[in-house]
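Query structure, 175 tokens:
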């Protein structure tokens, strides 16, 4: 059985590769903003706990990912409660939030990739993270992106490879 994938691979206008995901959440934009900026909310779905200084060039401190060493990044841009982008392990992560006419929020995550061959790997990883965020937005418990052997990462990765996304990058915690 093939896993369903929701991310798209694209080349940005400046030529950089990226993967993008869009969701609609039944919450106002201010609540979804908390999902992407509050460290206690982030650690429930993001691969690492992220402490973010919400200002341009502010520090971002990443910790708690069992597969990566603690690290730091910097905020690229912030426009509360609509946009946040920051550097993370060479990549960029962009969150764009747009209120809909019915009081919900369109959430877009764009992962600008430092290397094209990370597309399938990162796509599969974001699927796991966003499944946890989707559950959180519904008020449900979820084991998060590091659910261990129960996490369907491998099937998602294979689905992204089958969909033609560039692959071949090493996989932290599996290589």
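Result returned for the query:
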């Amino acid at each position: 059985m093939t896993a369903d994938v929701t991310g798209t691979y694209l080349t940005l206008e400046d030529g950089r590769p990226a993967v993008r995901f869009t969701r609609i959440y039944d919450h106002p934009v201010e609540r979804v903003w908390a999902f992407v900026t509050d460290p206690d909310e982030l650690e429930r779905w993001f691969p690492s706990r992220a402490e973010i200084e919400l200002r341009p060039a502010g520090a971002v401190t990443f910790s708690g990912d069992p597969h990566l060493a603690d690290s730091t990044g910097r905020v690229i841009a912030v426009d509360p409660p609509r946009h946040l982008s920051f550097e993370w392990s060479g990549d960029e992560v962009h969150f764009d939030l747009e209120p809909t006419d019915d009081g919900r929020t369109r959430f877009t995550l764009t992962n600008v990739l430092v290397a094209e061959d990370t597309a399938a790997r990162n796509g599969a990883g974001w699927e796991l993270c966003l499944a946890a965020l989707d559950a959180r937005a519904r008020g449900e418990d979820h084991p998060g992106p590091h659910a261990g052997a129960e996490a369907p990462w491998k099937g998602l990765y294979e689905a992204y490879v089958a969909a033609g996304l560039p692959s071949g990058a090493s996989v932290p915690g599996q290589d």
